[in-house]
Amino acid sequence: MKKVLVAGAALLLAGGIASTASAAAVEPGVKITGDARARLVYRDSFDFGQKGESEATNLDHRIRFNVVGTAAGGAYVKSRIRVADTYANDFDTDLGERASLGGDNIWVDVAVLGVPFNDQFTTEVGKYRVTYGPGATSTNFFYDDVSLAGLRGIVKTDTVEFNPFVEWMDEAQASAIGEDKREDNDEMRFGGHLKAKVNEDWTIGGMLGYQMDDRIEKEELVDGLTYNEQNDGLFASVYTKGKSGAMGFQAELGYTESNLNGFNNWREDDNGDGKDNIGSEDDGIGGYIMPSYTMDALTLALNVGFTQDGFLPDRAFGFIMIGTEEPISAVKVGDTGDWMWGGLVAMYQVSESLKLTGNLAYVSVDAWDKGGGPLTSTPALDDAMEISGKLQYTISKGADFYWLAGYLAPSFEDDEVEDDG
After folding, report:
1. Contact in structure between 168 and 188 (CB atoms under 8 Å)
2. Which run of H or of E encompasses 36?
């Protein structure tokens, strides 16, 4: 008998601050913008009965500053400074009460130099974040808000954008293995992304890349662990987005060669702990389609998709309980097996300041054999049903309040896991 194992709710508060030192972005000067977030989170039965943790409540928050400096000729620098980015940690102690400054929470996750050669071509070099897909950041299936270090081009015309890139995923000089340092055995990624506007209503795009891994695979005789397991191979995606009258449509298909399955899930692949966090036995593929229909303030969408042979979509993709984008998300799309899902999404704009979203989703999972897929994070699902909703209310310009609630009813391959609920 299936039992309900997971329920949760979340309270989020978001706001923004801004200060500019120049009248317009094209003028020389420095521009500072930012955003802040505080979330109160309640979760129940998220351990699926395995760890004896039935419920938890916590508070997290973050503050981010975006700094852009522009020279007279158009060259620019961008950085993003993160301050007090916490998750269920004790950060109410003053610095003067600490024995050291070792745990302080300020760092930079974007530091990039941009040089425009003309109106159509710009080069960016440094540490940057990219989104290649049909939707806004934090909504895409394959490559969303990915943190990278290297160089990329931005080639633009009125209807086409092309982004060639060369990026360093793991620098040999930081390796614990002497041969890697001496031979400069890097792990690198290169390829290109193309996006074209067919007409005013339709956009198509895609990316093709290859990741090479020259690091030496080494068996550590002391603990029996294998270090630097190879994470190389092809990856690719194609996507489209458009509308025709009241109908809308969005779709994406992604492919990763076996050694790269899970490479887009914020997992470290330096393998210093001997774990192979990325890759699986077979080449992975996954995709989705999402037709929609809008009637005045109401939009109805149907999200239908699949993952196969170890493919994992980007962490941004999913619903609320099924996904990883929200603090109350419980299961990762594509985790533990081959997935097929279908979900109805209803969005209603009640007023200029109030928007409601509801989800009703079902997923069926064909669980992998042990070792058949990338590193997993939850017990193997058999299926799951989600009912969830989100309320977004604009308090004032630049400040929004969110309330999310979700209910997940899963069943598992292992009957003991389900019975422990």
Report:
1. yes
2. strand 29-44
Decide: 77 and 69 in contact? Cβ < 8 Å.
yes
224: DSSP letter = T
Residue 388 and residue 321 in contact, taking contact as beta carbons nearer than 8 Å: yes
Residue (of 32, 112, 28) closest to 74 by Cα position? 28
Cα–Cα–Cα angle for 43, 261, 267, rounded to 5 degrees: 50
* Burial group, residue 1, by CB count within 10 angstroms (0-12, 13-18, 19+): exposed
Where do we find the tokens 């995606």?
A: 237
State how far Cα 223 lies from the chain centre: 33
Spatial separation of the C-alpha atoms in residues 10 and 315, rounded to whole Å: 19
The pLDDT tens digits for 164-214 are 999 988 766 666 666 666 656 677 899 999 999 999 999 999 999 999 887
Return phi, psi of residue 339, to 5°: -105, 145
Find, among 365, 362, 388, 255, the residue nearest to 302 by Cα.
Answer: 362
Amino acid, single-letter form, for residue 379: P
pLDDT in tens, 402-416: 999 999 999 887 655
Question: How many angstroms separate the Cα of 1 from the Cα of each of 4, 8, 114, 420, 421?
Answer: 10, 22, 59, 12, 11
Q: What is the pTM of this model?
A: 0.84
